[in-house]
Amino acid sequence: MTLSGTTLTDNVTQAEARAQRLARLLADEFDALKAQNIDAFEALQPGKSALLAELSTLTGVTDKGVDPDNHPLQDVAWDSFKQQMAACRDAHHRNEILISRQLDAIRGTIAALQGATGQATVEVYDRLGKLSRARRARGYNEA
Predict the structure, then answer these.
(1) pLDDT (tens digit per residue) in 1-24
(2) φ/ψ of residue 76, rounded to 5
(3) CA distances from 10 to 15, 17, 24, 81, 99 (A)
(4) Which residue ranges make up each domain of the chain?
(5) What is the CATH number of domain 2-142?
(6) What is the pTM (predicted TM-score) of this model?
């Protein structure tokens, strides 16, 4: 059986190697997120996109789906690859959860700084280092 001019074994071997690289990349992505190093995180994205495109080509899986009657991943030879990709999916989900939590924390901080919670105890300063006029005006009105 051939896919794109190579043998099934060649495709499986290449796909497994790329899946291992993807797993390492997702681990690096997680480390960058934990350290809140956005530059490192963003630098990893083109490599991840390229790996996913290569995997798509090797496996025949695209965003348009696959032909279920003639799909190469049904072969038993792909079982190890599918396990690796399941682990990558879980690592990606872990990274997604971390990003969501960090965004929630940022949104909470912004809301507190903007006084969206009503009784915020944080004083907000403008670019000149003075108390925001909106904050002072509300304080005068309350008095």
Answers:
(1) 444 456 778 888 999 999 999 999
(2) -60, -25
(3) 8, 11, 21, 13, 36
(4) 2-142
(5) 1.20.58
(6) 0.69
